[in-house]
Amino acid sequence: MASSAFLNTITTTFLLLILLQTPLVSSSSPANFTHKRNFSKIYAFGDSFTDTGNTHSTTGPQSFGYVSSPPYGSTFFHRSTNRYSDGRLVVDFLATTLSLPFLPPFLARSADFSHGVNFAVAGSTAIEHDFFVKNNMTFDITPQSLMTQLSWFERHLEERECRGRKRPECKAAVGDALFWVGEIGVNDYAYSVSSSVPPNRIRDLAVKNVAIFLEALLNKGAKYIVVEGLPPTGCLPLALILSSQDERDDIGCAASVNNQVYSHNMILQNRLQELRRRHPDAIISYADYYSAYYTVLKNPSMFGFKETFKTCCGSGGGALNFDLFATCGSPNVPKACSDPAKFVNWDGVHLTEAMYKVVADKFFNRGYCKPAFDVLLRS
Predict the structure, then answer these.
(1) CA separation for the pair 71, 337 (Å, rounded)
(2) Is 350 a catalytic residue?
(3) What is the pLDDT of residues 108-117, one digit of tens each?
(4) Could you tell me if 156 and 203 are in contact, meaning their C-beta atoms sit under 8 angstroms apart?
């Protein structure tokens, strides 16, 4: 019979071999906020779902013109930070995931931009502003488009990142950053809803501009890009009050609106595939906002939600508690619901911090990015 010392040695060696071959943390774990690649900068773009302060009450869309007032920001920051939510957004959870500070807005010119910049603007469109002016669609519209954000990024490079550097050095510095392109295009459809311009034309122009924008980033040296698709906006209270009851889908969303979004996302993914072929050295990941959001609505209690459509910070009562003429933060709506974490929707269009957190987890840990977010971190 073998000695106990010999058996202990064999057992210890076997355990060490197992440990060496087993990941310390599963990449699917919801608590997995460790990362393999140490991104030191994030550049973010998009609309109000991503804006961390470029828009204030005086500059944002009129229908949601109280973002600088309470109860915006009440859950996490305990004050308004000009984010369209009660707290953090997906891009904030991204920064935390990468052990970076929250991204300052570009228009906060005295901010510390050493770890990145957020160029997103609430109300921003994928299509340039001139198109809406020519087609008489300027009501409640923000003049900044995705191309405005691109010009701001170029200005940032000239003033800070590339100042005193040769072009190859600048391009290499850009290539080390993570580019987060938040959903954009929802406002394009919203501004054209009562116009004579067909939705398919809006879709084609919006996706085309996103592709042009991404091509510009890639040509400047971007190598790691995440592009969010559009969420199912037919599930937002604003869409529900503007649509008829007889066009609801199986979970109560406006089917025609979601069909439009689904088509947009499919064409966008095709464009991303074309960009991947032209830029094989870059990783371009698609964040499936539609599926992540829809998964929550199909089984809300699994994620801690009680109210899937009702507005937490709104007015009017009823199933939606939403009135477009008395929105969150206005004199008539100075308070929100007592427990925003039980609500998916914050103010009728934007989401609660709790919902953004769930969506972020699906992007980073649950495979709703394609290629997976982990691929960016391991590259």
Answers:
(1) 10
(2) yes
(3) 999 999 999 9
(4) no
pLDDT of amino acid 165: 83
Write the DSSP symbol of residue 25.
S
SS3 state of residue 88: coil
- On whether the CB atoms of residues 181 and 45 are closer than 8 A, the answer is yes
The answer to whether residue 347 is catalytic is yes
Catalytic residue among 129, 264, 279, 350: 350
Candidate list 86, 188, 347, 361, residue with the active-site label: 347
Residue 183 burial (C-beta neighbours within 10 Å; 0-12, 13-18, 19+): buried
Axis crossing angle, helix 199-219 with helix 146-156, rounded to the nearest 10: 10
- Rounded to whole angstroms, the Cα distance separating 34 from 24 reads 11
Measure the CA–CA gap between 229 and 235, rounded to whole angstroms.
15
- Higher pLDDT residue, 191 or 279? 279
* Greatest Cα pair distance in the chain: 92
- Catalytic annotation present for 48: yes
- Please check the confidence at residue 32 and state whether its pLDDT lies above 70: no
Q: What six digits make up the tokens of 219?
A: 């040509």
